[in-house]
Amino acid sequence: MIDWKYYEVMYGERYMDTPESNPEGYKNSALTNYADKLDGRLLIIQGYQDATVVPQHSLSFLEASIKAGKLVDYFMYPNHEHNVRGKDRLHLYRMIDQYFTDHL
């Protein structure tokens, strides 16, 4: 979850109230505002069909990272929702394991 303004309203407003009544909270918690401070490697993995954490989250962070000149590794599972399930979960675990092996 990158930015509460893109999060599912039922959950977001439960914790953050509305953007109109809590603009500072939304601004301060939006990770896009901190992309320029990224130091090191970052892997973002997301399911394209995720209706809870919609792709706009990762896309907005990627855009902020590009503007800040930061490199981010990104992988999207085109046929998955909020959780990668089935045979693709093995692929997900292999990817995470390899990323840690390569970069930690």
UniProtKB/TrEMBL annotation:
For this protein, the record's Pfam families field holds: Peptidase_S9
Read off the InterPro entries from this record. AB_hydrolase_fold, Peptidase_S9_cat, Serine_Prot_S9B/DPPIV
Offer an example of a GO molecular function term for this protein.
serine-type peptidase activity
Residue ranges of domain Peptidase S9 prolyl oligopeptidase catalytic in the record:
2-104
Q: Which UniProt keywords apply?
A: Hydrolase
Task: Kindly list the biological process annotations in GO that this record carries.
Answer: proteolysis
Q: For this protein, what is the EC number?
A: 3.4.14.12
Keyword 4Fe-4S attributed: no
Q: PANTHER family annotated for this entry? A: DIPEPTIDYL PEPTIDASE 9 (PTHR11731:SF193), PROTEASE FAMILY S9B,C DIPEPTIDYL-PEPTIDASE IV-RELATED (PTHR11731)
Q: What is this protein called?
A: Prolyl tripeptidyl peptidase
Q: Specify the species.
A: bioreactor metagenome
